[in-house]
């Protein structure tokens, strides 16, 4: 059974329909890359799945639990707060602009949620955080504040913070878009490493080579719909849609 199922997701803002019936599935250990032009609804889809936005209608299930379904009146019906909170613990989200607490040290940024949400002791949370910082090659930055870090280092802290909650599926919303090109590689290296460890991930990205090489499945979105989806070798090597071809033609082969 898929770890994530989203079916016929619709979402409007101010009368403009941004998501027009999106359906995706992600298997445990899989990597789904979501590509497409700006304004296609990619980030909105992630925000709906991670409960930062509510859907107008559609069905979402994560780890076998129903987050939202379409009621008989055609409108979204969410599960009760306890279920929604439980589902939220299965999910991690890494933002494009880091969203670190500027007044917390790197270590406290990572330990705050495990202590207050998961109920871990300070010692437990810090021991786990230091392991994650070592994994991110940031062991020497535990006491630093975000303003003293490069963009790439801040994003690695963001990834460590998300991993500290032991999510079942990790979402990345354009994780390299706020970075200088020379820092992009270090973040993609981290994500590649997580993919090798079979971390279930959904990655919204403009990095076409990364999507092609790391993802098990690629979804191309445009104008609020899925234009094409399939294995990367199909989407990139045997493109069926002219809309997809036009989009991919803007990116040079790496």
Defining key terms:
254 residues, 9 helices, globular
What's a quick, concise take on this entry?
With 254 residues, the chain is of the alpha/beta class. It is built from nine helices and eleven strands. α3 runs parallel beside α5 and α4 crosses α5.
Please explain how this structure is put together.
By secondary structure, the chain is an alpha/beta fold. Helices cover 35% and strands 26% of the residues. It is built from nine helices and eleven strands. The chain has helices at 42-49, 81-88, 106-116, 122-135, 151-163, 181-196, 208-214, 232-237, 242-248; strands at residues 4-13, 16-26, 31-35, 57-62, 65-70, 76-78, 91-94, 169-173, 201-204, 217-222, 225-230. A six-stranded mixed beta sheet has the order 7-8-9-3-10-11, sandwiched between helices. Helix 3 crosses helix 4 (122-135). The relative contact order is 0.17. The model has no long low-confidence stretch (mean pLDDT 94).
């Amino acid at each position: 059974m898929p770890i994530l199922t989203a079916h016929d997701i619709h979402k409007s803002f101010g009368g403009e329909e941004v998501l027009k019936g999106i359906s995706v599935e992600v298997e445990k250990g899989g990597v789904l890359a979501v590509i497409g032009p700006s304004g296609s609804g990619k980030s909105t889809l992630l925000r709906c799945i991670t409960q930062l936005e509510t859907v107008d209608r559609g069905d979402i299930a994560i780890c076998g639990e129903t987050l939202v379904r379409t009621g008989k009146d055609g409108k979204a019906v969410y599960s009760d707060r306890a279920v929604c909170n439980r589902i939220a613990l299965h999910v991690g989200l890494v933002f494009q602009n880091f969203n670190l607490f500027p007044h917390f040290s790197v270590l406290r940024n990572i330990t705050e949620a495990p202590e207050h949400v998961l109920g871990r002791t300070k010692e437990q949370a810090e021991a786990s955080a230091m392991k994650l910082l070592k994994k991110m090659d940031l062991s020497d930055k535990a006491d630093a504040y975000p303003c003293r870090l490069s963009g790439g280092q801040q994003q690695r802290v963001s990834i460590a913070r998300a991993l500290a909650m032991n999510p079942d599926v990790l979402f990345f919303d354009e994780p390299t878009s706020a970075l200088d090109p020379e820092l992009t590689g270090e973040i993609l290296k981290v994500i590649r490493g997580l993919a090798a460890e079979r971390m279930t991930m959904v990655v919204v990205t403009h990095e076409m080579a990364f999507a092609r090489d790391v993802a098990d499945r690629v979804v191309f979105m445009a104008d609020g719909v899925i234009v094409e989806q399939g294995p990367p070798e199909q989407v990139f090597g045997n493109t069926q849609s002219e809309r997809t071809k036009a989009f991919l033609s803007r990116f040079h082969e790496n």
